[in-house]
Amino acid sequence: MDEINLFAKTNFRGQEKTFGIKTHDRRQHMYVIGKTGVGKTALLKNMALQDIEAGRGIGIVDPHGEFVEEVLEKIPSHRINDVVYFNPADAEYPVGFNILQAPDPKYKHLVASDLMGVFTKIWANVWSARMEYILNNCVLALLDTPGATLLGILRILVDKDYRQKVVDNVRDPVVRAFWVNEYASWRDQFRNEAIAPIQNKVGQFLSTYLIRNIVGQSKSTINIPEIMNTNKILLVNVSKGRVGEDNSALLGAMLITKIQLAAMERVRIPEEERKDFYLYVDEFQNFATESFAGILSEARKYRLNLIIAHQYVGQLVTETTTKVRDAVFGNVGTLITFRIGAADAEFLEKEFTPEFVIQDLVNLENYNIYLRLMIDGVTSRPFSATTLPPTAIGKITGQRDKIIKTSRERHANSREEVEAKIAKWSGMVPKEEKRFAKSEEGKRRPPLARHKTICWACGQETDVSFKPDGRRPIYCQKCLEKLRKGQEVPLRFKQITERSVNEPERSELKELGIEFGGDSGSRTSDEDKTKKPGVAVEEKKREPSPAISLKDALKKEPVPFRRKRKEVNLKDLRKTIEEAINKKE
């Protein structure tokens, strides 16, 4: 026997009767339309709470957040562990959702097609054939790469090494040919112009850390097929006010696409064993892509039952197509209308005539409806009813915080962990340096030799890992710490270090018979005699030049820097030439 979900009451033969819709009839989908504030969300909430109480599997996609939050307050205790709460605004515990993680390779083309449909709808004002061509090849290439996410779209366009890594995994010869033969041959200027719109739109979507931390996780933490097959509760709070209008629409549409693909996987399950999953979509025009039309026409056989609501018919029509509108009115079994505008009343009059006309549709009071109800597979004649009060179903349980905490523990990761993985993937974090250097044979190299010398600042003996050359300053550990703190450290023992470095070289040359004389910079022999080996001698400070004024400095003769030319005695030269000529004669 079919279970009945109650949602309204009507006056039948002088008696007020509460009625609802059977499970079998719900598989034909329900469509709710009405102006804002007339009671659409209250109707959906009452139905959803009954499904939750009955232990059924449901999903709610809410672009405002209020619907989901009110349902959270009334989740009964026995269903707390079934809740999967997806809230992109929860920055500290992002849920992982990777649309490119295809469950079955044969559905990869569907993922790409549906994802392109989402992009086409959201970015319709800037969409072009070239943008679609490049973006489609990006998605198809990434679908063949294990662990790839939407973050790879921007990287594959500009990072040559990453692009090569992805192309190596591509199995489709057409996609591979695009990257190897076509994209690689484009001139830089043309390539930059071609990919600029993609970088702009995809970059805006991924630049928000809230979104990046969700779609940038290589492994999804929410298992959509499991949620549908085990009667779980999926609550999606894509509030526009928290994540932005475009981000809300993109995330919501991608989640609905994922749900559609999960439903299609049920083809391997016998039809009588498939469990009904009820998907509530409020303000569904935000997510109504052309693939959504496919759900309406095909989801029934996979037991994916839709309950969709929005405000007016014009939201389903674009400049180029009426496909979604036609799919809605061509497939839904139960049609419910609250108060609507004159244009919609004119369009819907043919659905409710002769019982109700345009004037009736535009003058309905809040929480009053006209509907055509699916009863045992047959659509009824139109009749009027009043929806159940918003507080009629369920009680506030006070379990909201506990539900969110439980869902975080099971279906989310910490922000620090996610951002660290994304940074590592993007190459922003350098690879960890090896603690020990290794030779080609894999053995540890011997430790570097230490050289004993004297600190140029304090004269204390120290050792360094390089051979002193007399030019590079040498400091002990204490003086080095002073330098790092910004303190002044005078080099008072530089000369003795220079002498100790140069002496071995001179002794080696002396053995070869080469000797050096004293230079102007060396000390006198008398001074050297007073030096004791191994004892640091303080260098004499150089007396500063007396200060003079600029006027006095200008009176001084300039210092000549050019070498004087050697004067040639022309008389001697002539005499030498004449003598040479006379000898020849």
TrEMBL record:
Signal peptide range in chain numbering: none
Domain Type IV secretion system coupling protein TraD DNA-binding as annotated: residue spans: 23-341
InterPro entries registered for this protein in UniProt: CxxC-x17-CxxC_dom (IPR026363), P-loop_NTPase (IPR027417), T4SS_component (IPR051162), T4SS_TraD_DNA-bd (IPR019476)
Biased composition (Basic and acidic residues): 499-513, 524-544
Region Disordered, residue ranges: 499-556
Pfam families xref list: TrwB_AAD_bind (PF10412), zf_Tbcl_2 (PF23477)
Residues annotated as domain CxxC-x17-CxxC: 450-483
The protein's name in its UniProt record: Uncharacterized protein
Species annotation: Candidatus Portnoybacteria bacterium CG03_land_8_20_14_0_80_41_10
